Amino acid sequence: MNIKPIKSEKDYKNALKQVEELWDAKANSAEGDILSILLILIDDYEDKHYKIFPPDPIEAIKFRMEQLGLRNKDIAKILGGANRVSEILNRKRDLTVKMIRSLNKNLGIPAESLIGQN
């Protein structure tokens, strides 16, 4: 098998096919080593060409609330009152640093998801 840098979408798809063929290769074998190298090359290519951005902060809060079965009143203490919850979830007020820290600590929402992207 010929291993080379992944420079194009075609190279990427070929590398994925090779990984599929080698998926069950034993560790510390020639095939296992090739698989490891291919996975590193694929990961590097995906990092450069398929960026995954953090979710929208409000959607992250709503998703976590749904996961935990929480309602607006359940997070009122975290955000500083029922009015604040409504304002935040309806995008009428921005999250403060204090709110971000509280959501991170109490609900386990990653800070990077709450900060959003510029």
Contiguous helical run count: 7
Name the helix and strand elements from N-terminus to C-terminus, one letter apiece: HHHHHHH
| Strand tally | 0
Instruction: Please name the CATH topology of the largest domain.
Output: 434 Repressor (Amino-terminal Domain)
Question: What's the pLDDT, averaged over the residues?
Answer: 92
Going by helix content, strand content and strand pairing, the class is mainly alpha
Q: Provide the domain count.
A: 2
What's the CATH architecture of the largest domain? Orthogonal Bundle
Oligomer: single chain
Distance between the termini: 43 Å
Which CATH top level class of the largest domain fits? Mainly Alpha
Please tell me what the overall shape is.
elongated
CATH superfamily caption of the largest domain: lambda repressor-like DNA-binding domains
Radius of gyration, Cα only, in angstroms? Answer: 22 Å
Please bin the fraction of helical residues: 55-70%
Instruction: Point out poorly predicted stretches.
Output: none
- Main sheet summary: none
What amount of the residues lies in strands? under 5%
